[in-house]
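2.7 Reproducibility. Because tokenized structures are sensitive to small changes in the input, we list the exact sequence used for Succinate-semialdehyde dehydrogenase, including any N-terminal residues retained from the expression construct. No trimming or masking was applied before prediction.
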Amino acid sequence: MSLSLSRPDLMRRQNLINGEWADARDACRYSVHNPASDALLAEVPDSTAIDARAATDAAYRALPGWRHKLPRERAEVLRRWHALILANGDDLATLISLEQGKPLSEARGEVAYGASYVDWFAGEATRVYGDIIPQQQPGKRMTVEKEPVGVVAAITPWNFPLAMIARKIAPALAVGCTVVAKPAEDTPLTALALAALAVEAGVTPGVLNVITASRTRGIDAVADWLADDRVRKMTFTGSTAVGIHLARESAGTLKKLSLELGGNAPFIVFDDADLESAVVGLMASKFRNGGQTCVCPNRVYVQAGIYERFASTLARRVEALHVAPASDAHAQIGPMINPRAVEKIGRHVEDALSHGARALTGGATLPLLGPNYFSPTVLVDVNDSMLVSQEETFGPVVPLFRFETEDEAIHRANDTPFGLAAYFYTQDMRRAQRVARRLEAGVIGMNEGAVSSEAAPFGGVKASGYGREGSKYGLDDYVSIKYVCQGGLD
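Resulting structure tokens (single pass, no recycling of outputs):
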């Protein structure tokens, strides 16, 4: 199966600033490669602070006109954008697979998932309600209004190059903000194609601006947004270390921040669980995008009474997974994003094996397939001192930890700085309520491995960040609350 675009014009190779496609001001470019083969896909602008400032200038100029459009007018633009995303879904999925590596079936799923946020926030655009405070004093009327916060800077990761940027841009545009965005270095092409469709949908010049940059020069570009007090909000999905840096460096301009950061998700299987359902749920949540998701289970705790049976059942399922490039129609696991990712996965597995763990299946790279493949792996006899427990692996590795009691499982699950997602399986409904209350995470999967939805709030606690994306709560970080007190009414 060949991967090609029916609309080659969606393969954009320039920045979008003020409605115009342009190279970086100094004409520097960097290369984007296919992780499955390391083949060159395209060269895109290697932008700097100068380009970031030009994007901010455009967004700031466009802000008054966009914020004063009627909510239904903004909603209509978003609905046209949503329709164009779906109409060009095959091409967008192809771009995702080419630059990110996930199987084409998963890429198609990401297109639909990302589009759902655009559709959701098109509806929410007309439901940004204020409030009337019951009268407190004679002759006074007190009201509350919600206004767009202003220019929003969005910085997105490589693992979901369409969904992550869509769920940041859509709420911003819905409430009347304008946007400057920088997609991940490894996956800029999907974001540029998405921006091209937004232009087709009628997004006003300057309302949405997208620049691309390599890792080093991208830091300079983002630093300009951090220092510019015209940028009133920054939304970021990525590592906790970078999130802390953004929070620290943005303090000088007191920006609003939404930070969706790292995770170390536990997955608890109690001995009264439906074992088959638990295995299916774990497979769905762990191996989505080859384990390269922030909410995929990183630590799987299985109660002692079913540990061996669960491990053998899981190993058979994992061993049967088909690892291949996206061009293989039967692919279930694609390549990892780059050699750094493969190195980290290998280091975690080697550390576990050297300290007493055993691999029931997998545990090695697959060089015959290409440069960035790692075999789906199940590790048993894992303990809490190993790297797979302490760090997020971000790959197709399932470490199985044995536990005895409910209290022990919850203590070990919460014994991490992170708190993005957590999962558990039990058929005891009293236990279900206890465990859901006690787990320290922003997203809980109770007898369910697939938890993401545009209608649900997504975000974490502790070192996994703050703010929420999606749902009716996803608008809160894009608005400011204004209180108006009108006197002299008696």
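The chain is about 35% helix and 20% strand.
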